[in-house]
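dumping these here so i dont lose them again. two proteins, back to back, each one seq then structure tokens. dont judge the mess
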Amino acid sequence: MDAVLFDMDGLLVDTEGVWFEVETEVVTRLGGDWGPEHQEQLVGGSWDRTVAYMLELTQADVDPAIVGDWLIDGMESRLSRGVEPMPGALELLRGLGDQGVRTALVTSSLRIIADAVLKAVGREHFEVVVTADDVTCTKPHPEPYLTAAGLLSVDPERCVALEDSPNGVASATAAGCRVVAVPGLLPIAQAPGRVVMPSLLDVDVDFLRGLIR
């Protein structure tokens, strides 16, 4: 196993509830209503898709850049108060570090959001961080995972990606990675090259190495 590649929202940290609060505020500001059925449309998707969906839903005549700023301001404000790692995430990162396994963070969030999360989690856990600002195409396109593997100078087929969303799983699979899925808001089925686990508490370094072997 050359490296382990972590998704961020919903996999590394428990931010889906934070996103829901901020999205609700922004959509209310745009004159619309927001519910779980709307959030499910955006799980693991791109920043541009989120803004476009909100404007389409509300039919508000607001510059997309302004809507994006509202989202960033809301997320930064909440993340500055701290964010909870998902169960088992930090333990797994420490185990990988102890055994010298290289790691990367691969997220569809903007760099400014990732930086805020990493202040709480610890930037030192990741050799490489790939965000929406670093790629042309975000998940489910394979570019984010291919970019992370390229920056690490490793073969994606010898990497394990940890994901919680169908879009993220599709991205990692298309890049050639083995995938461990810990489903969040949306269900994910078992499939060749993919194992579905209930929690990162059930995942350790030996388990990940076994997926490559």
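---- next one ----
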Amino acid sequence: MSTVRRPHDETATAYDDADRFRRRLLDGLVASIKEQGYRNTTIADIVRRARTSRRTFYEYFAGKEACFVALLTAANAEMIERILAAVDPAAPWKAQVRQAIEEWIDCAEAEPAIMLSWIRDVPSLGDASRRLQRDSTEAFVAMIQTLCDNDEWRANGPGPVSRQLTIMLLGGLRELTAITVEDSGRVRDVTEVAVQASIALLAHR
């Protein structure tokens, strides 16, 4: 007995195919950044690694920068989700700081080239990337403020922190991570420095 495909099934299949092609292109960009950096990557490099065509690329992205923005938007959202999940709000507040920093470092070590490209390449690009930089900063600021606003922080810790303080914390973490990767170091080796500096900064009232 043959199976009749329903219209909504056809639509679902089309969406699945589109998502698969888009993911392949993003993976192609990741592979190229790891091998030769974002600045030296061309659309030809992306489609070659994705094993597809330039025509397919332009069905999903207006250009290399748009592909890069999509990649980093997804990567940053995943990173924020992982950090939020890693922190136990019932733990002592200093332990919560450590949990958050350790997860940040795990993310950086998993994809150091992408992390470095986010920190170093985005500021020099066009309007879309500048919007990404601002949006990602605001998302991480909101994440830090959320993490610093629970019963443990209010009872035993410094309490909620200001937006200005979270921006300073985020900027320090980003620069420390970038310099460590650029110097071919292991990001894990700066864990203690990052934890203690973050605790000191967050404890400032």
